[in-house]
């Protein structure tokens, strides 16, 4: 699953 | 953010700085695979396109710019400034055999089928094999300078630390990303034989000799 569709990791 | 991801990002940054510093100071890119550096620049470029669409944190944005800038600077040093020292004969891995399958797999297995997400997925798959030309070059030359092995150790450690980060995030937030996890495990496994040689040899002051 994703944080609101954005990727929060580098 | 957690300590595993923070130290992972720092290990990643240290690896990039070690390499850039080595090439700049020695004014030579002997023993360095330009192809791997091209793949890393491609990984960051396709992964960080979301710089223009979504904001996560100042740290996230800053680090993305740093990774993009340093990866292109490294390529510039290898293929332009010190190209006379670039070892064409040993940097022969066919990177199209890494790029095309990664792209095909990204089109087949992804979280969402849209442009940015497929490119992000491509960058995840490509990053997991991007070091192969460098490891291939070290095995062809049969050895690596100790500074190059420190670079590889830091670079390999970064994704190993990310695995701990993913375990931590699953345990504390229930958050996980299977694509990143599977690719990250593959990426880390590729370093295992190098890690073994690094710990048993380089840390004892010996030269890194890979079985050719």
UniProtKB/TrEMBL annotation, chain B:
MF annotations from Gene Ontology: ER retention sequence binding
Main localization category: endoplasmic reticulum
Organism: Callosobruchus maculatus
Highest rank taxon of the organism: Eukaryota
Keyword presence, Transmembrane: yes
InterPro entries, per database record: ER_ret_rcpt (IPR000133)
UniProt-listed PROSITE patterns: ER_LUMEN_RECEPTOR_1 (PS00951), ER_LUMEN_RECEPTOR_2 (PS00952)
Name of the featured protein: ER lumen protein-retaining receptor
GO BP terms: protein retention in ER lumen; protein transport; vesicle-mediated transport
Keywords assigned: Endoplasmic reticulum, ER-Golgi transport, Membrane, Protein transport, Receptor, Transmembrane, Transmembrane helix, Transport
Membrane spanning residue stretches: 62-80, 92-113, 119-138, 150-168, 174-199
Compartments reported by the entry: Endoplasmic reticulum membrane
Family per similarity comment: Belongs to the ERD2 family.
Listed GO CC annotations: endoplasmic reticulum membrane
Alphabetical list of Pfam families matching this protein: ER_lumen_recept (PF00810)
Membrane topology summary: Multi-pass membrane protein
């Amino acid at each position: 699953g994703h944080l609101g569709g954005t990727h929060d990791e580098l | 953010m957690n300590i595993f991801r923070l130290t992972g990002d720092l290990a990643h940054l240290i690896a990039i700085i070690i390499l850039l510093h080595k090439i700049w100071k020695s004014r030579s890119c002997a023993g360095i695979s330009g192809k791997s550096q091209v793949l890393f620049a491609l990984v960051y470029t396709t992964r960080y396109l979301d710089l223009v669409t979504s904001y996560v944190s100042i740290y996230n944005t800053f680090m993305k710019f740093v990774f993009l800038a340093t990866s292109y600077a490294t390529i510039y040093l290898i293929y332009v400034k010190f190209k006379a020292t670039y070892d064409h004969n040993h940097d022969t891995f066919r990177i199209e055999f890494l790029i095309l399958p990664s792209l095909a797999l990204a089109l087949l297995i992804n979280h969402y089928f849209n442009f940015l997400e497929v490119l992000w997925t491509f960058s995840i798959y490509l990053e997991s094999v991007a070091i192969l030309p460098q490891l291939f070059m070290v095995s062809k030359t049969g050895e690596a300078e100790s500074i190059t092995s420190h670079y590889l150790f830091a670079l390999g450690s970064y994704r190993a630390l990310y695995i701990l980060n993913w375990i931590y995030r699953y345990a504390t937030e229930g958050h996980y990303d299977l694509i990143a996890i599977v690719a990250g495990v593959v990426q880390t496994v590729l370093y295992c034989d190098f890690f073994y040689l690094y710990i048993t040899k380089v840390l004892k002051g010996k030269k890194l000799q890979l079985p050719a």
